[in-house]
Amino acid sequence: MTPVVSIIMGSTSDLPVMEKAAKLLDEMEIPFEMHALSAHRTPAEVETFAKGAKGRGIKVIIAAAGMAAHLCGVIASMTTVPVIGVPINSTLDGMDALLAIVQMPPGIPVATVGINGALNAGILAVQMLAVGDEQLQDKLAAYKEDLKKKIVKANEELAKVSFKYKTN
């Protein structure tokens, strides 16, 4: 099975956040790979990965990094494959990583989700892949319908909660 999505993290300490994207890709039956690469500690490996991604059949890259968060932009600078950046909350409440990822120079876009937003990165990757895949669009529609059902159920449960001055 050839992967079509790459999940790249600056360190394996990012795995607890990034596994949310991995679980969604698994649920959607999308083949993916995971690597730990560092723009600062393994720049040659990052370059090899980024320049070879398209040729290996990768359609979307989800890249996560904390602090200076250069990994996402470095990868985006070396490939035409769409890159989704996930800022990791490691210092400064993740704001340093968010700003580093979202503020790319013209010509080097990185789609950026919220701090620790790996699940949204996974959903965005699925949406990108689903543009040309009706079966995947159906899976995504079912996933979103399940989200709606969870809220409906939550409201039903809230209706049973009793307080002296609660009116509904």
TrEMBL record:
UniProt-listed Enzyme Commission number(s): 5.4.99.18
Residue ranges of the TM segments: 60-88, 108-131
Cited function: Catalyzes the conversion of N5-carboxyaminoimidazole ribonucleotide (N5-CAIR) to 4-carboxy-5-aminoimidazole ribonucleotide (CAIR).
Coiled-coil ranges per UniProt: 137-164
Domain PurE: 3-151
Alphabetized UniProt keyword annotations: Coiled coil, Isomerase, Lyase, Membrane, Purine biosynthesis, Transmembrane, Transmembrane helix
HAMAP family found in the cross-reference section: PurE_classI
Domain of life, per lineage: Bacteria
Xref: NCBIfam families: purE
Reactions that this protein is recorded to catalyse: 5-carboxyamino-1-(5-phospho-D-ribosyl)imidazole + H(+) = 5-amino-1-(5-phospho-D-ribosyl)imidazole-4-carboxylate
Pathway annotation from the record: Purine metabolism; IMP biosynthesis via de novo pathway; 5-amino-1-(5-phospho-D-ribosyl)imidazole-4-carboxylate from 5-amino-1-(5-phospho-D-ribosyl)imidazole (N5-CAIR route): step 2/2
EC class of the enzyme, as a word: isomerase
Similarity remark: Belongs to the AIR carboxylase family. Class I subfamily.
Protein name as catalogued: N5-carboxyaminoimidazole ribonucleotide mutase
Pfam families: AIRC
MF-aspect GO terms: 5-(carboxyamino)imidazole ribonucleotide mutase activity; phosphoribosylaminoimidazole carboxylase activity
